[in-house]
Automatic annotation (TrEMBL):
Cofactor(s) the record lists: [2Fe-2S] cluster
The organism of origin for this protein: Chamaesiphon minutus (strain ATCC 27169 / PCC 6605)
Lineage: Bacteria, Bacillati, Cyanobacteriota, Cyanophyceae, Gomontiellales
Keyword entries, A-Z: 2Fe-2S, Electron transport, Iron, Iron-sulfur, Metal-binding, Transport
Record-linked InterPro entries: 2Fe-2S_ferredoxin-like_sf, 2Fe-2S_ferredoxin-type, 2Fe2S_fd_BS, Beta-grasp_dom_sf, Fd_pln
Pfam families: Fer2
Coiled-coil stretches: none
KW Manganese (keyword) present: no
2Fe-2S ferredoxin-type domain ranges (all copies): 5-105
Protein name: Ferredoxin, (2Fe-2S)
Family: Belongs to the 2Fe2S plant-type ferredoxin family.
Single biological process term from Gene Ontology: electron transport chain
C-alpha cells in the first residue's frame, strides 16, 4: 500500500491547478494548505459543506481513480457522495485523485 497519493485540485474560474502528494494520515485540505493553497473551508470536521470539491471522472481527459475515505463527515448525503462530492477537510485519499474545487453551491441546491 502506498504511503501517499497524488491529488490534483483544479478550477479554471479560480485559476487553480495544482498537483501534490498527500500522505496517508493527512487530509487533502491540510496538505493543500501546506502547499500554499487558499481554499474555502469552515469547520474542518466534515459537518458543513464549505470545502466541497467534486471528483473529475475519467472520460474528461483525466486518469483518476478518485477514491477517498471521508467517513468522518456528515455534511454530504449518500447520493452526493455517489455523485463524486468530497469534503476535503476530512477526506484522506485511497488512490490518486483529481478534483474540481469550489463546489459548495452545487451541494446546497
Amino acid at each position: 500500500m502506498a504511503s501517499s497519493y497524488q491529488v490534483r485540485l483544479y478550477n479554471q474560474a479560480e485559476g487553480i491547478d495544482k498537483t501534490f502528494e498527500v500522505p496517508d494520515a493527512t487530509s487533502i485540505l491540510e496538505t493543500a494548505e501546506e502547499q500554499g493553497m487558499e481554499l474555502p473551508y469552515s469547520c474542518r470536521q466534515g459537518i458543513c459543506s464549505t470545502c466541497t470539491v467534486k471528483t473529475i471522472l475519467q472520460g474528461r481527459g483525466y486518469a483518476n481513480e478518485g477514491e477517498v475515505d471521508q467517513s468522518e463527515g456528515s455534511a454530504l448525503s449518500e447520493e452526493q457522495i455517489a455523485q463524486g462530492y468530497v469534503l476535503i477537510c476530512i477526506a484522506h485519499p485511497l488512490s490518486n485523485c483529481v478534483f474540481e474545487t469550489h463546489k459548495e453551491v452545487e451541494v446546497l441546491n
